[in-house]
Every structure is written in C-alpha cells, then in structure tokens.
Amino acid sequence: MTTVLEARHIDKFFHKPVEFHVLKDISFTLPPGEFTSIMGKSGCGKSTLLYILSTMDTDYRGELYLKGEKVTGQSNSRLSRLRSQHIGFVFQFHYLLSDFSVLDNVMLPAQKLAMKSREEIEHDAMEKLRTLNIEQLALKKASQISGGEKQRVAIARALINSPSILMGDEPTGNLDSYNSENVFQIFKRLREEQGLSLLVVTHDEDFARRTDRILEMEDGRIIRGN
Amino acid sequence: MKQWRLILGIARNHLLTKMKSTVTASLGVTFGIGAYITLVSFMTGLNQLLDDLILNQTPHIHLYNEVQPSKEQPIDRYLGASGDLAQIRSVKPKPGQLKIHDALPILDHLKADPRVLGATPQLRAQLFYLSGPIDLGGVLLGVDILEEERLSSLGDYLVSGGARELAQSDNGVIMGIGLAEKMSLKKGDRVQVSTPGGEAFPLKIVGFYQSGIADIDNTQSFANLETVQRILGKPSNYITDINVKLHHIAQAAPMARELERQFGIRARDIVEANAQFETGTNIRNLITYAVSITLLVVAGFGIYNILNMLIYEKMNDIAILKATGFSGGDVQLIFMSQALLIGLIGGVLGLLLGFGLSQLIDSLPFETEALPTITTYPVNHNPGYYAIGISFALVSTFFAGYLPASRARKIDPVQIIRGN
C-alpha cells in the first residue's frame, strides 16, 4: 500500500533574527491508518516540521509527497486545494471563526472545496458534529462555547472533507485532563473506525505513549522512532 | 473556480459583525458622494442660470447689415497697381440700407438647411415713446413672436401677458418693464410711438418684458413684425435682422463664416458675441470639478483607513481561512468584495442624500428682480452626475480596498498561528 505522507531530506532555516538551521535532513514515511505522535523539547522544531508537512509552510529544502504526489514546488492555489482535500488540521488553540456559527465553521472548508452541494455538506457537517457529541451546539456562535467544545468543533472541521490524514499541533495542549482524554478517544476512534492516519505533535507523554508510534526529535533531527 | 456565494457570504458576515466600522466607512462614502451630487448639481445649476441669462439673449447666428467703411476706397481702384501711395483722411462709412437684401429667400434657404432648428426675421426700429411732453428714445423690435418663443427663451422673460396675446393683437406691444415704469404704464394702457420722421402711432400694451438686464429693459419693446413694418411704412419684405438657431451650437462659427461668404452680409456667431463669457463659464466649471474631486478623494482615503483596520482585526480569521483551504486569491476577493459592498451601499445612500439635498435647495425660495421666472434656487438634476457619483464610489472603494486586500492575500497563516 502507498504511504500517506513521505518526507525526503527536509531542511529548514530561519533567517530572522539570526540564521538558524531548524530542521536537519528529516526523512520519514507515514503508512495509512497509523497514529503517530511527534515528541520533543520546546524549540526542537517539531511544530515547524508539522507546518511543512501540512503544506502551509513552503519555505524549505527537500521533497514532500502526499499520497504519492509530489507537493514541493506546487502553486499556492494548488496547495490550498490539496490541503483541504487531503489534510485535516487541528491547532493548539481552536482557531474557529468566532463570528460564524459552529455549523458554518465546520462547513466552510467543504464549501470552498465545492465537491458537494450545500445540502450534502450541511448533512455531513451535522453528521460529524453528532459523532463528536456536539450537534446541539450547531447553531451557536463559535465565540459562545467552551474550550473543550471548541476543540471538538475544530476536529469536526478538520474532518469535513474526509481527509486521508489528520494533523494536530498540540491539540490537547490547552485542555484539562478530562477534555484531553476526550480528544484522545476521538482520535483513536477515528483511526479504528475510518482508518484515518494521525500525526500529532504533543508534549503530553501519557498521550504519546498510547499512540502507535512516537517520533522523538532533538535539535532538528529525529533521534528515535524512525 | 470562484465561489461567489461563499465569498460574499463571508464578506457579509465580516461587515455585519463589524457593524460600527462598516457604518463609519459607508457614511464616509455617503457624505462624499452626497456632497459631490449636491455641490455639482447646485453649481452647474447656477452656472446654467448665469449662462442662460446672457446666452439666451443671443441667437446662435445673427445676420445683419453692419455700418462700416468700404474696404476698398475708389481712389485705390484708380491708382491700381501704379505703386502710388494714396492717403485719405476722414473716411466715412459707406451709405447703405439697414434692410437685408432678399431677406425672405434667405429665410427660406435657412429654414431648409438641415443644421438649422429655426430662423426668425426681426425688424429693429429706432423710435421714440411719447409720454406727455417727454420723448423717450428706444428700440421697437418687430418679431414673429410665436416662432421667437419656440426658438429662444424669450417666453421666460415675458411677465403678465404672453406671446399669444401679442400674436392675436394687430397693434399690441410688449414693453420693456423699465420703460413702462418710467412712463407709469399698466397692461391694457395705450402708448404713442413716433418714428424719427415724426409720424405718431398708437400701440396697446399686452404685456411686459423683463430680461434682468436694465439696459435692455429700459429701452426695448416687442411688437409683431407687420406692426413695425406698418409704423415705418415699409413693405413686408423689409427685415433688418435674421436670428438663426442651430441644432448644435458648435456649428455656429463655421456656419456664420459660410453665410457671410454666401450672402455678403455680416453674420455674428454666439461664440464671437460672448467670448469673455465662455472664459467665465470654463473657470467656474474648473472650480466645481476641483472641489468635487477633492471631496471624492477624501472619502476614498476614509475607506482605505477603515479597511486597513478591518483587516488588522481579522488577521486571525484570514489565517484560519487560509489554513482550511482558502487561497490567497480567495481572501483577497473576500476583502475586495467588502470594499465594493461598502462603496455600493455608501454610494447609493450618497446618491439619495445628494438627491434629497438638491431637492431641498431646489425648493428654497430665491427671488430676484433680475430674474422674473426664477422663484427657487436653480439646481441641475442631470442623471449623468449620479452615474459619475456611483462610478466614482465603486472605483475609489476598489482602489482603497485593493492595497489592504492584497496585503491580506500575502499574510502567511503559519506566522499568525504560531505567533500566538
């Protein structure tokens, strides 16, 4: 079976305030249906790596393949499309559009992709919300719900286009243990029920230990788990 | 592929949630455009009034015989090419008749010309108005009053009594108001006029004429062409002036030259007659445009500022949209459509405001001795200004929105998300 994501010899530099070599020759592959976590100390480059893998950051050297297709060097609009089709992203902070309703927030990426009619998208969005037990919030404004609920809405949004891989940048970093556990269970269920690949950057060792594979990073290199 | 419904939906949400900024920005446009419409309508209305005041008294082309010395004196012919120098002192004008030769065929010729809207004959008679022991010198114009009313604005200056009454009366006269006041004459009174030859003739006053220009009102009266011909004892082909009105005023000058060559009489066009007036009009128009453009540019800068602020406030939203699959172009379109919506709403309200204000000005009383037919301030409700207003609102909001929107396009979502 093909890999979901493959990174080949990725190097990344920060130019400001001083020249800094953040990522050094990173290569690894992600098989489908695997729950992978990336661990490491603050500043080791794990978030930077994640943003490169998510195709949002294009300023790097090396090559990146998404489901066998080379994404390095593609145009911005093409990248936007690939990203919304194949990658779901959950941030540490929820990053919802606070002036829109929960349902709108979940629907927007699918409306942009425009592969389905509005009715289908709305139906899908309600489905996702129901899976995450927050369908009763659908019509509330995103600014009116609690932190744990926001993170679940963000997960629903990440899932709306049925991506091949779900990425998370410390998705539980801002949540209490109850909500963290909740998010972890959701991730686990998604992998088991839908065969989704997951790639999560985390500081939480308990969280990482229960994933299939831990990539440990130090000073811009993967030192363990590859 | 552009999804307009989605993009406009997001733009609408941004505008509605930032109601205060939206209203402020729209009001900026509204006041700019409203002030522009009001100002330009009022100023061009005033300009039009001033132009009409003078220009309506002047026909597009005026044909008459001018008293002037011969260009070629008899001695010149005698000397010919001999090379001798002739010096003539005290050159006198050439004697000739004021009557236009073959006036009726010329009139027919002019009326058949496709460039001509109409041509009217006039007979200008110098005579005296008799009032007791006093003789007041003046001019009596014999006209075809119904044609004059159709072609010139003469009708606008007739007070108490109209053209029709004159046309139906055999010995009627429309007197200059100043002249009538001097002689304490009322409508229906009789007045005696006498020719330079001394023959007196009674006329009945059917109305008054008030042009607002004292020199004219104090000396000039109107009567039917036939009446004046009878007073002077002249036949019905005796005509001293022909006024021509054209379809297009721009043709006046070339056509006047053409008529001079063709008929050998003096033809004075409207531009020649009012050269200094054109200059004044141009300068007033220049001022109007300078002020309007300033107003519109100020409104444009207001929009620019507010959109910049809006984008600064929506930095997170932009990053989120980009992270969830929206391209830079989409984000730019979202903000451009916000700018244009502000321009459209503000512009339309501005047109309404401008229309309301100019209607208000139009209804304010403005009464002046000089302009008998004007009762309110003049306003030019030209739809063209409304078209310019709304176009400028859209164009200026487009440019004001373009810079902030292209900045939003370039925002790097990673920097915003990681910066927090």
Automatic annotation (TrEMBL), chain A:
Which SMART domains does the UniProt record give? AAA (SM00382)
Keyword ATP-binding carried by entry: yes
Entry annotated with the keyword Nucleotide-binding: yes
> Which residue numbers delimit the ABC transporter domain?
5-226
Any one GO MF term held by the record is: ATP binding
Ordered alphabetically, the record's keywords are: ATP-binding, Nucleotide-binding, Transport
Q: Which domain of life is it from?
A: Bacteria
Q: Which Pfam families match?
A: ABC_tran
Q: What is the designated name of this protein?
A: ABC transporter ATP-binding protein
Source organism of the structure:
Robiginitalea marina
Source organism lineage?
Bacteria, Pseudomonadati, Bacteroidota, Flavobacteriia, Flavobacteriales
From TrEMBL, chain B:
TM helices/strands, residue ranges: 21-43, 286-312, 333-357, 385-403
Domain (MacB-like periplasmic core) spans 22-261
Q: What Pfam families has UniProt attached to this entry?
A: FtsX, MacB_PCD
Q: What positions does the domain ABC3 transporter permease C-terminal occupy? A: 290-413
What subcellular compartments does it reside in?
Cell membrane
Protein's membrane topology: Multi-pass membrane protein
Which InterPro entries has this protein been placed in? Answer: ABC3_permease_C, Lipoprotein-release_system, MacB_PCD
Provide this UniProt record's keywords sorted from A to Z: Cell membrane, Membrane, Transmembrane, Transmembrane helix
| Chief place of localization | membrane
> Member of which family?
Belongs to the ABC-4 integral membrane protein family. LolC/E subfamily.
The name under which this protein is listed is: FtsX-like permease family protein
Q: Which organism is it from?
A: Robiginitalea marina
